[in-house]
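hey m, so remember when u said the tokens were messed up on ur end? i reran from scratch. heres the input so u can diff it against urs
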Amino acid sequence: MARKSPNSDTFDFEQALAELEQLVERMEQGDLSLEQSLKDFERGIELTRTCQGALKEAEQKVQLLTAKGDQEELIPFEGEE
């Protein structure tokens, strides 16, 4: 499962999306208990927020790279060390 933050080297965006799709499919079937539905919903929210964070970081990095062109020195992205 993709439980790492987007800053982690082991975060897998595609795996997180696949897990989110599986959660949605299970919940749409309607066979889950209320407790399991709530757990899946909570996990889905966690995955959504993590993926949104990863997308925002990627967008910021692209903006930095495209705004500077090759005329100025690129500064390290805040998520990198």
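this time it looks ok to me. The first helix runs from residue 13 to 29. if urs says something different then somethings off w ur setup not the seq
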